[in-house]
Write a structure and sequence with these properties.
- Helices cover 30% and strands 16% of the residues.
- It is of the alpha/beta class and 384 residues long.
- Strands 3-12-9-6-8-7 form a six-stranded parallel β-sheet, with helices on both faces. Strands 1-2 form a two-stranded parallel sheet. A two-stranded antiparallel sheet has the order 4-5.
């Protein structure tokens, strides 16, 4: 949310001021505080400005009810003082307020096919062509997909783990890298010939693993995870004879494989480095963008056709053992996952690979609750 400062004389009597906070579903301490100030001003009798909240995944019922109370003046300073002095019952007034109007403006997006872990994991784990990779590799011994998963053990001695054996709760880099490599190579002749044969889950390998074009957007929870993924992908792709943008060969055309242009995207990059993700890939290239949730709504890469989602995010959470708040790796909310999926349907029909099962997705919270875990010392702190 961007703040523009108005004096009371500018804000209240002017009916031509429209304040439009975008992406209000991205709840945060600053944005909620700013919205609270606006709602308090909205309830004044002299206020004439227009407040329009915008979001693609907002919980409309809750926000409409909240704004209805604001318009009725229940959050104004005068209403609060009157209740403290024994005036009208605020609870009774709240029960009689009506929610504000909700406008739905449909936008055009192409269809995006969703694939879950149970659709592709076993096939990719046991793929001999993807078994080679650079660096240390270990046999797969234990899946690591979090508290909701009911995993089967896809141990196969011919298939090694990319990046080594993971610790419990760590990202499944092996599966993420294998998905991207498979999308860069495309389906085998056997898979292509069986493209019209439906699997038990209703998914065909030929359509699922069709060679990607444009950009593949990979969502990861943080900068360390992005750096590790980029390193593992470069090594694995090089080990099976592919070229990346860091190779001096400039190849790709001669060996039939796409040249992978692999680049990170996060808030810590310079403006020049961030602009690189908007350049189109050549016909013999495939652009791989490894991004944090900054690409979820704040940045739109126009040529994304495939989203590969780790379904993880880093949020502030309270650790009772240590009695302190910490940045914790956890599953993202359904709202976030829907936002991420939509990145693939901007220019053409797209695909979204989610590294969780459908069962796990069904157990995820609809909205993020990270704001509830913010410490009061941070909320009420003042600058020195």
């Amino acid at each position: 949310m961007h703040f523009v400062y108005f004096t009371a004389s500018q804000l209240n009597p002017n009916p031509n001021i429209y304040i439009i906070p975008p992406q209000v579903h991205e709840r945060g301490m600053d944005s909620d505080f700013g919205l609270g100030l606006l709602c308090a001003a909205l309830g004044r009798q002299s206020s004439k400005f227009k407040l329009i909240l915008m979001s693609a995944t907002i919980s409309t019922d809750k926000f409409a009810e909240y704004l209805g109370k604001a318009v009725a003046g229940l959050f104004s300073t005068a209403a609060m003082k009157q209740e403290c002095l024994g005036g009208i019952s605020r609870a009774k007034a709240i029960s009689t307020t009506k929610p504000v109007a909700v406008l739905f403006i449909p936008g055009f997006t192409f269809d995006v096919t969703e694939y879950y872990k149970n659709h592709f994991e076993e096939h990719l784990r046991n793929s001999p062509k993807l078994a080679k990779q650079a660096g240390s590799a270990y046999d797969q011994k234990e899946p690591c997909d979090g508290e909701f998963e009911n995993n089967r053990d896809y141990t196969d001695h011919s298939s090694k783990r990319i990046g080594g054996e993971p610790r419990k709760g760590d990202l499944d880099y092996d599966l993420l890298v294998r998905i991207v490599i498979k999308l860069a190579i495309g389906p085998s002749n056997k898979e292509q010939s069986a493209a019209t044969e439906e699997l038990e889950s209703g998914v065909s390998y030929g359509e699922m693993f069709a060679q990607a074009t444009g950009s593949v957007l990979v969502f990861l929870p943080g900068v360390p995870e992005i750096n590790k993924f980029v390193q593992l992908l470069r090594g694995a792709w090089s080990d099976i004879g592919g070229y990346t943008d860091q190779d001096s060969h400039g190849g790709g055309k001669d060996n039939g494989k796409k040249v992978l242009r692999i680049m990170p995207l996060h808030g810590g990059l310079s403006a020049i480095d961030q602009k690189r993700v908007f350049t189109d890939a050549a016909s013999h290239e495939l652009k791989i963008v490894a991004a944090t949730n900054v690409a979820e709504a704040s940045v739109t890469i126009p040529d994304v056709t495939v989203v590969v989602d780790s379904c993880r995010v880093k949020e502030t959470d309270f650790e009772p053992e240590r009695q302190m708040n910490a940045l914790v790796l956890k599953f993202a909310s359904k709202d976030s996952l829907r936002q991420r999926r939509g990145r693939a349907g901007r220019v053409a029909e797209g695909r979204c690979f989610r590294c969780i099962t459908q069962h796990t997705y069904g157990n995820l919270p609809n909205h993020s609750v990270s704001l509830l875990c913010e410490p009061f010392t941070r909320i009420f702190s003042t600058p020195p």
